[in-house]
Amino acid sequence: MVVGKDCVESSGLCKLASCAKMPANEVLRSFSAAEVRLLRRRLAQPAECVFDPSFQEPEAEDRYMGPPIQSGQARGNDDSGVDWLAPGGVEWSAEHEQHAFLRLNYCRYRVMEIVREHAGRRLPAAAAAEVLRWERLAAATREQLVRVNMPLVLAMAKRTRIAGVDFSDLVSEGSLALLRSVDKFDCRRGYKFSTYACRSILKSFSRVAARTARHRGRFPTEFDPALEKSDFLDKKRSSVEGDCVSELRAILGDNLAKLSDVEQRVIRARFALDEPSNGQPLKGKTLEEVGALIGVTKERVRQIQNKALDKLRSVLEEAVLVK
User: Under 8 Å CB-to-CB from 132, ≥6 apart: which residues?
Assistant: First the structure.
């Protein structure tokens, strides 16, 4: 609903599409970077408020923007978190709560009025300063309302019986629901804010439970860092290598490849076939070490090794064909 005659006749949530333009660059230079960001964000989004006809009365500003709201009756720590989040651990009366919501929406109403008055035009410096002033006042009042009612989220999160959902997720979703409720609550309807907010918070808990269930359906197991890198291939490779070494030792033991004594010594030394593994990877000798062992050059060792491997390969291929 756009601010106008309809809002005068009845209370309710009023919205006004962003229609004013950012001030000129020379005007923006008089504001800080944070103020420019706030102004840009405000004009990029629709302005809204829960309108009350009393906002248009001449004494409205004095009525709603008077002295700060005084704290209500203090209460002890009931394990709800109110002593942590609210200054002094307070509980507002119905009158204090209503005044705070009217103050919040009056500030938002004044922003809407400025935006409407400058529809299609750039905001002058004075109007931009007024928008920033009312935005700050609205933010301060909103923060006060959220802090006082935050224990409601904590208490409901503790009492909710939803399996498989972290307490922190419930508090996070409930806090967002509380913020939305503060912006949309109409205090003139005669019931307390907690009555309105409880329903919104419970709906948010249902949403996070449904989202968690969908997530678990797609990812049925919890994240396990040990599963990030599987050692299956390494174990499989070690097993295959062990089988090959065993088969090679059997061939050399019976000399099925008809290797000469020199060829057998070269193969056993190069591949450490005479050394016990003890579960550790075998480490064979280099060509140069084998050459020093049998009294030849490393190039000659390479030739002997290649010839012996050709004979072993032939025996292994025949064994595979027989199988």
Answer: 31, 35, 38, 39
Determine how many CB atoms are found less than 10 A away from the CB of residue 19.
Answer: 15
The dihedral through the CA atoms of 246, 248, 252, 254 has a sign that is positive
Tokens of 20: 């004013």
Which residues lie closer than 8 Å to 57 by C-beta, 6 or more apart?
63
Least confident of 154-168, 213-227, 286-300: 213-227
Domain at 5-68+77-218, CATH from 3.30.720, 1.20.120, 1.10.10, 3.30.110? 1.20.120
Tokens 């005068």 correspond to 8
- With CA atoms as reference, report the closest residue to 62 among 9, 108, 115, 102: 102
For residue range 87-111, what is the model confidence (pLDDT) as tens digits? 444 567 888 889 999 999 999 999 9
Share of the chain above pLDDT 70, in %: 80
To the nearest 10°, report the CA torsion of 151, 141, 114, 22: -70
The CATH architecture one would assign to domain 233-322 is Orthogonal Bundle (1.10)
Q: Which two tokens stand for residue 83?
A: 């002593």
For the chain, give every domain's residue range.
5-68+77-218, 233-322
Predicted TM-score (pTM) of this structure: 0.59
Written in H, E and C, the secondary structure of the chain is CCCCHHHHHCCEEEEECCCCECCCHHHHCCCCHHHHHHHHHHHHCCEEEEECHHHHCCCHHHHHCCCCCCCCEECCCCCCCHHHHCCCCEECCHHHHHHHHHHHHHHHHHHHHHHHHCCCCECCHHHHHHHHHHHHHHHHHHHHHHHHHHHHHHHHHHHCCCCCCCHHHHHHHHHHHHHHHHHHCCHHHCCCHHHHHHHHHHHHHHHHHHHHHHHHHHCCCCCCHHHCCCCHHHHHHHHHHHHHHHHHHHHHHHCCCCCCHHHHHHHHHHCCCCCCCCCCCCCCCCHHHHHHHHCCCHHHHHHHHHHHHHHHHHHHHHHHHHC
